[in-house]
Amino acid sequence: MATDQTSATESDTYEQLERRVERISNVGNAAGVLRWDQEVVMPDEGTPARAKQLSTLSSISHELLTADETGELLEDLEAADVDDERAAVVREVRRQYDRETSVPQELVEELSETTANAHPVWKQAREEDDFEAFAPTLEKLVELKREYAEYVDPDEDPYAVLFAEYEPYLDLETAERVLERLRDELVALIEAISESDADLETDAFAGEFDADTQEELCRDALDALGYDWDRGRLDTAPHPFSTGTQFDARVTTRFDESDLLGSITSTIHEFGHANYTLGLPDEHYGTPLGEARDLTVHESQSRLWENHVGRTKAFWEYFLPVARERFPALEDVTPEEAYEAANQVYDDNLIRVEADELTYHLHIVIRFEIERDLIAGDLAVEDVPEAWNDKYEEYLGVRPETDAEGCLQDIHWSHGSFGYFPTYSLGSVLAAQLYAAAEDELGEIDDDVREGEVDQLNAWLRENVHTHGKRYTTPDLVEEATGEEYTADYFLEYAKSKYGELYDLEEY
To answer: In which residues is Zn(2+) bound (predicted)?
Structure first.
């Protein structure tokens, strides 16, 4: 009888925690819709009110999470014998509770309002190529994030604390090790490519392509990949992104009439994010079991669909006829030519979101090194443009002529998102590992893609990644899905094999 009473008490305690967590989640999701609105449709003059709205929601969420009642519920459940799923919820809530109870509410509100106000400042500075106009805002954000990190863990490297906001279970040392390995091995591969005599068809998508028709084609691509329009939508934004929940996961892209391929790959990338979100279990909405497992895993999904599906010859054998229907000018382009154009390695690219699959990671390394030095106090904000340009010249052999195409090109720092950039490369590495595991089980996935069939791949991802939410930590999820520890081996093997063949590199 006593055991039954204990069990009932524990269940009631857990249900109380779950209700509280669901309220916190709903506040956050409401803020997410407001941020989507700010990026996509909000009038330009709406920022002052929107900043206060987001600050208020941030304050409400912070108060709910850091309340004494939340701590008491967590303590009771940590002392109880709960099942694995409930233990995972308690673990995730505890992690957030510990971080946020260490940070004063006034700082939380100031960060929220500052980042909301920073967006239009960054946007105008980029449009006017005026870093000095953004510098004071960036300086304030750096100071606030240092202060935030100091409150969370005064004994830890502040950049490691900020990195853990986006990837809490792969430590910074792992990130640094992977990024250094990518830098060292990809630089050699890219140099070999630059010396290659291979004559790829790089102009397959040259020309002018009407933006409205591009949007129709991007909708075709989303249809081909199985996007659920009843739970999503496609819009445009200056910096493409995806946001939402398993009931409403939205995709944004952008259109450049001289860059058809860019809109297609951007849309497929954001589809990967939205598809992951839509694959989270409905029944766990509002709890960590119904939330994505942080940004390394999230980025693995976008990069998997963009690169391991959308840049394959098999995809273009299927999708090129669809593209020709929208744009008859592509009538003479072959799937092989489309494949080569989609995978060319640029020797003069300055823009991360326009980078090829290989040099992309050097773009990430540059941002990682700069923001790490900023947070450490080893680089002054006023020196960011010169540091940025020097690193581009050193790693990529090109030097930006303007800050708009240099250190002002990304939105992330205006959001205060220091520590975010490494997850792009960490996710690409994981994408290759997951894709290899899927092929081990399913066979040659290209055969399905060539026929426009992606249901098997998506089902594998649903079962092995999406459905778990945050039940597992990142390393545990990787082992559950692939049977191995997280490793860069598969990505580097994939990159060397693919580009060695494309560029006729004997040593690869």
So the answer is: 269, 273, 299
Among 414, 337, 456, 503, CA closest to 135: 414
Based on the fold, state whether residues 346 and 488 are members of the same structural domain.
Answer: yes
Query: What are 169-184's pLDDT values in tens digits?
Result: 999 999 999 999 999 9
Residue 412 annotated as part of some ligand binding site:
no
Q: Could you say which of 92, 165, 215, 270 is catalytic? A: 270
Same domain, yes or no: 295 and 432: yes
Range of the domain at 322: 172-502
Residue 251 is given by DSSP the state E
We report the CATH number of the domain holding residue 378 as 1.10.1370.30
Question: Do the annotations mark residue 269 as ligand-binding?
Answer: yes
375 with 142: CB under 8 angstroms? yes
SS3 content of the chain, % helix, strand, coil (to 5): 70, 5, 25
The rounded mean pLDDT for the chain is 95
**Three-state SS for 104?**
coil
DSSP string for 388-402: HHHHHHHHHS---SS
- Asked whether residue 239 is marked as a ligand-binding residue, the answer is no
Contacts of 202 (CB under 8 A, 6+ apart): 340, 341, 344
Please tell me the total count of domains within the chain. 2
Q: What is the token pair recorded at 465?
A: 């990644």
Query: 481 pLDDT exceeds 50?
Result: yes
Q: What is the pLDDT of residue 1?
A: 47
> Full-prediction pTM beyond 0.70?
yes
State the pLDDT at residue 421: 96
What the block records as the tokens of 106 is 């006034």
Q: Catalytic residue at 270?
A: yes
Looking only at the bridges linking them, the beta strands covering 242-245 and 248-253 are: antiparallel
pLDDT at residue 4, rounded to an integer: 55
- Cβ 318 vs Cβ 447: under 8 Å: no
pLDDT tens-digit map of 224-236: 999 999 999 999 9
